[in-house]
Amino acid sequence: MLTAGETILLTVRLAGSVPVRAARQLHQQRVAAQAATADLATHRRAEQQFFAGFDALLDARTVGPAYLEKEKLADMVAGELLMLEEQGFRVPCFVLLPNHLHVVLHRPAGLGLSLYKAVELLHQRTAVQARRHLRGQLPPEADFWQTGFHELPVLDEAELARVKAYLRGHAQRLKLPERFREWPYVYESDEVMG
Predict the structure, then answer these.
(1) Cβ neighbours around 42 below 10 Å, total
(2) How many CB atoms lie within 10 A of CB 84?
(3) What is the pLDDT of residues 100-151, one digit of tens each?
(4) Angle at 97 between CA 172 and CA 93, to 5 degrees
């Protein structure tokens, strides 16, 4: 059983990693589906469909950079994700992919730091370090991360198990090099969330 608090599947992506028109279309479909009814199950399905569609766009890698293919950057981002535990979050699992990442974060009840502030700090810290690694490759005016993120609440242990399996197999489904299938690119905590 998940402990008190909130558990979220979070997707963070590099700036410019999804075609704008396609992203806008997916967003409009989600909004229309949710506006059509007040039913929570329908809202949840719309969120899940949005996640699946958006993830497929990211996985296709038709536009934008793939900076997380660089091992130094991937190592740095993985380390910063694990540093969230020092701020009170629990990180049951994550996967780094060439242009985005998925991380499950558990925010215990009573933790003063909000999810939004934690992601903002993660964006800031990793972007500064990435700029150092990417000297000459990232124009000074360009953002490293896309502003914002997508979140999908993880409602129970069964869903958490499905999410972990999805993240664990993500790199293999995309036929990424072997290094993306081993820590620090695919991470799963041994800790039980109960």
Answers:
(1) 13
(2) 20
(3) 999 999 999 999 989 899 999 999 999 999 999 998 888 878 899 999 899 9
(4) 80
